[in-house]
From TrEMBL:
<dbReference type="InterPro" id="IPR003439">
    <property type="entry name" value="ABC_transporter-like_ATP-bd"/>
</dbReference>
<dbReference type="InterPro" id="IPR015854">
    <property type="entry name" value="ABC_transpr_LolD-like"/>
</dbReference>
<feature type="domain" description="ABC transporter">
    <location>
        <begin position="10"/>
        <end position="242"/>
    </location>
</feature>
<protein>
    <submittedName>
        <fullName>ATP-binding cassette domain-containing protein</fullName>
    </submittedName>
</protein>
<dbReference type="Pfam" id="PF00005">
    <property type="entry name" value="ABC_tran"/>
</dbReference>
<dbReference type="GO" id="GO:0005886">
    <property type="term" value="C:plasma membrane"/>
</dbReference>
<keyword id="KW-0547">Nucleotide-binding</keyword>
<dbReference type="GO" id="GO:0016887">
    <property type="term" value="F:ATP hydrolysis activity"/>
</dbReference>
<dbReference type="GO" id="GO:0022857">
    <property type="term" value="F:transmembrane transporter activity"/>
</dbReference>
<comment type="similarity">
    <text>Belongs to the ABC transporter superfamily.</text>
</comment>
<dbReference type="GO" id="GO:0005524">
    <property type="term" value="F:ATP binding"/>
</dbReference>
<dbReference type="InterPro" id="IPR003593">
    <property type="entry name" value="AAA+_ATPase"/>
</dbReference>
<keyword id="KW-0067">ATP-binding</keyword>
<dbReference type="InterPro" id="IPR027417">
    <property type="entry name" value="P-loop_NTPase"/>
</dbReference>
Length: 242
């Protein structure tokens, strides 16, 4: 195995994955640079979620390699991968999955409380993140008392509170109204940049992808490269599937 380039925090080489025999990824390679916001774009079913799951160690590729900071994830045992996810990664789903019995700040603080932080310091950190996402006033509300956009903000604060090295966000604003979407994404990307959190974001929305530093396009489980051909100066880019 040849380790990845030093400036890539995540690196995948020729990743293949099938769901119950049906191919979802067919030889995808990519590098994610430290501190960048990378958007994985592509139509529904193109393999974005599966790639996020392979990069974050939720799924083990059938073939290929996934590395995090020069450590191979694809050869780790399930326990080691779970430890890595808890210690270094954050995850945001399209729909917020909050603990219904806990209020907003308790949901936000949960990852810190589970790793042994004091109640006082976890609450302080949770309140700061909730304020930052403009929902400090709802800190004592339970999930059922919140709007969907407020619940998703809580889910985002819960993913950010541990200052993960890499934050994986799977269509994080897909279930939200357009106006909420833009504001939440701007706050999320600003928070990630100020804390030097690398973000890998799956989306099929060009407006969301526009907030990223770089985009990687998937189509039918393969990476699609945009190239400008030398003899087509001034004309639009074309795409090649490789
Ligand atoms: N759990 C599963 N079982 C069977 N097939 C699956 C499963 N998850 C995904 N697939 C299939 O794998 C392919 C890639 O799906 P994936 O969810 O990774 O794509 P996506 O680009 O994230 O799409 P979406 O935007 O709809 O989530 C699709 O054909 C999908 O139907």
């Amino acid at each position: 195995m040849v380790p990845p380039p030093d400036n890539d925090v995540l690196w995948a080489r020729a990743v293949h994955y099938s769901h119950s025999g049906s191919p979802a990824l067919s030889g995808v390679s990519l590098g994610v640079r430290d501190g960048e916001i990378l958007a994985l774009v592509g139509p529904r079913g193109s393999g974005k979620t599966t790639l996020l799951q392979c990069l974050s160690g939720h799924l083990t590729p059938a073939q290929g390699e996934v590395w995090f900071n020069s450590v191979p994830i694809h050869t780790m045992n399930p326990l080691a991968r779970e430890r890595l996810r808890i210690d270094r990664f954050g995850w945001i789903d399209p729909e917020p999955h909050l603990v219904p019995e806990l209020n907003a700040w308790e949901n936000t603080a949960l990852p810190l409380l589970l790793t042994g932080a004091s109640h006082r310091s976890a609450k302080k950190a949770a309140m700061e993140w909730l304020e930052r996402l403009d929902i400090g006033a709802y800190a004592r509300k339970r999930p059922h008392e919140l709007l969907q956009s407020q619940r998703q903000r809580v889910a985002i604060t819960r993913a950010l509170i541990t200052s993960p090295t890499v934050l994986f966000a799977d269509e994080p604003t897909a279930a939200l109204h357009r106006t909420d979407r833009a504001q939440i994404l701007r706050t999320l990307t600003a928070a990630a940049r100020s804390h030097r959190i690398t973000v890998v974001l799956a989306t099929h929305d060009p407006e969301v992808a526009a907030l990223a530093d770089r985009t990687v396009t998937l189509l039918d489980g393969r990476r699609v490269n945009s190239v400008r051909l030398p003899d087509t100066e001034g004309s639009p880019e074309c795409s090649l599937s490789v």
